[in-house]
Specification:
The chain has 109 residues and is mainly α. 63% of the residues lie in helices and 0% in strands.
Length: 109
């Protein structure tokens, strides 16, 4: 079960990371912070890094968001992203996996 969750999680991460940055849909800052914190918790576990200085606002916001999730396991963070923040990810994966697995990458000349 854990292996399936990890594979789905990293497939969704690859898809999201490859989306065009400037797009029609703008993600609110709070949602970006929550996704960042959940991603860090899912990939690295609890935040053990030192608290950033108060003048580095962005780093401090990211650090705080991640620190709040310290009691969440890596698997729970992955499941939370898959089930709550990206509810269409399961549908997207069901559509994309067969397509991607059938495509053979060829070098274009």
């Amino acid at each position: 079960m854990k292996d399936i969750i990890e594979r789905k999680f990293f497939a969704v991460v690859r898809i999201v990371q490859n989306l065009p940055k400037p797009g029609l849909i703008q993600t609110p800052v709070n949602a970006k912070l929550q996704l960042y914190a959940l991603y860090k918790q899912a990939t690295e576990g609890p935040n053990t890094s030192p608290k950033p200085n108060f003048w580095n606002i962005v780093r401090k916001m990211k650090w705080s968001a991640w620190k709040q999730l310290q009691d969440l396991s890596k698997e729970e963070a992955m499941q939370f992203i898959l089930m709550n923040l990206l509810p269409s990810s399961a549908n997207l994966l069901q559509i994309m996996v067969p397509i991607l697995s059938s495509v053979k990458l060829t070098k274009m000349m």
